[in-house]
Amino acid sequence: MRLAFILGEIGTGLRRNLSMVISVVLVTFVSLTFVGGAAMLQQQIGQMKGYWYDRVQVAIFLCGENYGSETCAEGAVTDEQRSDIEAMMDSPAVAQYIENYVYESKDQALSHFREQFENSPIVDTVTAEQLPESYRIRLVDPEKYEVINELFSSMPGVDVVVDQRELLEQIFSIMTVASFVSLSIAGVMIVCAVLLIATTIRLSAFSRRRETGIMRLVGASKLVIQLPFILEGVIAALIGAALATGALWAVGQFFIEGRLAKEYPDTAFISSSDVWIIAPGLIALGVVLAGVSSMLTLRRYLKV
Q: Taking every annotated instance into account, which residue ranges of this chain make up the domain ABC3 transporter permease C-terminal (predicted)?
């Protein structure tokens, strides 16, 4: 009997404040979608770091003709200088840091360039002579880049030593900033959701003040009187959280897996299944926000 009464009161409250309930659902949906989007970005950053850091290389670019850098003042790299560089990489003191290395000639560099920029209008204007020779080194520990840089950057015939991880860090930094922006927007939307929930509960309590007064007179407990109001806000937040989870799953399924993963097969992307790791947190956040804001509102506007 008591459960049926509570469910009836919830239904009455939702019908009387339908427009406000829909507003709560939409604002909760938008705010939790931004929270989930930020979480997905962090998952993607972690996935890419784990994938690319295992494949990151250090590139030792060799001098060519008419290079303007100070290290190439003596002209293009010679065979003797190449031999010295390889001897240094094979020496016991340096080999412990190097997993493997390969030499890339100008022609190989041009071939790789054409593969990477096959859709670019500049691909046919670049020649092999414009590209440098290089050694591509995979380190045992990518954190030891500075050791390689110090050893090889001053050697004759070396133009510059480049850590590809620095380029990746720039990309990860941009993604991290994007996730913080998403969280900031989510924070504003969450405040809006809390205020809307509080307003909805306040209006519901005001419109049913006669019923609550009668309930107090007949001895109904504080929990029985307040629970329908609290559950109204929780139900609206749960619907919003469910919609946010569905939207994030759709992004993962149709945009990330259906498009990005196919266009960039060499990049490690998260999948739609990763959304289910985020989903419990979104639902819990929605329930907590709705429950706490409802309870605080009832303490102020519904004296029991």
A: 184-303
